[in-house]
């Protein structure tokens, strides 16, 4: 993405608020720039405002405050059918009495595109979503994944500047959902259109998006690429919502230019490398996959605590081991099942050490 594209976003959301009644905020003072050709995700728990924000971009919800610009044009007050966007709904919303081709070409027909041109555009759209040769079928003759592709083709056939996707994969089973995630990424890169997807599924967002906005209670908590969001969350909420996290309460004792000394109940005083200027109460966090289990006490340079194994969850490719320490801490450790074996990664009641490096430790302020 070049600097010109970044400076001139395809969508500019500026201090947007959507209020229901006097006090209930569905979206609360959100500002976002979404770049041309970007696969962008709005991620958060149910009721956080992500779908309301998407519907405001589409024109199905009215802004209480703020502005939204698409390709440099203020679209507040512009009706949905006049905006350079199209939307794929969670329910697909395909017409059961129409053929696949008629479904895809419906919007073109309504806007008066001649039959010959319409047929060529429909054929091209079906090719994009790998439904070649299925134009004469009815939706009830298709699988769930194929019906989703029909909805995508119908949305893409007019080549909008932005495609909006509201939980588009939630009705699919796990295996098909994973396949469609890869397919959507391929499709987006192929057509070059900006995609904005709403999802509550963190794995879906991490695997698909170029950048993610994490929302909570109507506000955007952090916007970042997936790896940055996962490895360097800006708050306790983001750290806890994205993936799994061990989170301990601490208090800053002292700091120098590159190291923070934090007193943590059950861990003692630990040294965390950071250049952030933080004081007082903080959260100390570490991802479970960065923690190592051992029967012997780890090297002194590691942050370590011993505990009793209380739970072991076998998930096939990995196991989740939970330790309880004498001081009351609970530590989750992800162990990769790299060796073909039926032996458990740890045994209930076993006393083990959990350890991780200082550089893998996060300091969270709120």
Low-confidence stretches: 1-5
Tell me the overall shape.
Answer: globular
Classify the helix fraction into a percent range: 10-25%
The CATH superfamily of the largest domain is identified as P-loop containing nucleotide triphosphate hydrolases
What CATH architecture of the largest domain do you see? 3-Layer(aba) Sandwich
Largest sheet: 6 strands, mixed
Count of individual beta strands: 20
- Number of DSSP helical runs: 9
Strand order of the largest sheet: 6-7-8-3-9-10
How would you sum up this structure, described in words?
With 366 residues, this protein is α+β, with helices and mostly antiparallel strands. It has two domains: 3-237, Rossmann fold, CATH 3.40.50; 245-364, RNA polymerase II/Efflux pump adaptor protein, barrel-sandwich hybrid domain (OB fold (Dihydrolipoamide Acetyltransferase, E2P)), CATH 2.40.50. It has helices at 3-7, 50-58, 100-110, 115-128, 144-156, 174-191, 202-208, 226-231, 236-241; strands at 11-20, 24-34, 39-43, 65-70, 73-74, 85-88, 162-166, 194-199, 211-216, 219-224, 246-255, 259-264, 268-273, 281-286, 292-294, 303-314, 318-324, 330-336, 351-356, 362-364. Strands 6-7-8-3-9-10 form a six-stranded mixed beta sheet, with helices on both faces. A five-stranded antiparallel beta sheet has the order 13-12-11-14-20. The chain has a five-stranded antiparallel beta sheet with strand order 15-19-16-17-18, with no helix packed on it. Helix 3 (100-110) packs across helix 4 (115-128) and helix 4 crosses helix 5. It is globular, with a radius of gyration of 25 Å. The relative contact order is 0.11.
